[in-house]
Predict the structure.
Amino acid sequence: MKIEHIAMYVNNLEAARDFFVKYFGGKSNDGYHNPNTDFRSYFITFDDGARLEIMKKPVMDDLEKPLNRTGYIHLAFSVGSKEAVDELTARLKNDGYDVVSGPRTTGDGYYESCIVGIEGNQIEITV
């Protein structure tokens, strides 16, 4: 069994698509639009086959996203090396995203950083 995809609602569909393509090498499909409901989505596919569906509909609650909460808390991307973690973290920081931890080796041995990415969603970058 495998997870087929993960989905998240966003306010700015194109900006979210561009974020995952630009920083994480995702490839986007052409998008989907249901004209009856005005639901729109893109599937972003990553090198190993993992997929992220980003979605938007006309009326959504946009609640605060504190970092310490229950529920889904972050997406984690493996970038292959400590140097790649450092490089991508610095790139995101230089582009104005908040780095909330790292890069560092965690107590359980992961080398990682965490940033607050598109629309307040936390992204973990690891080896």
Summary: The longest strand covers residues 98-105.
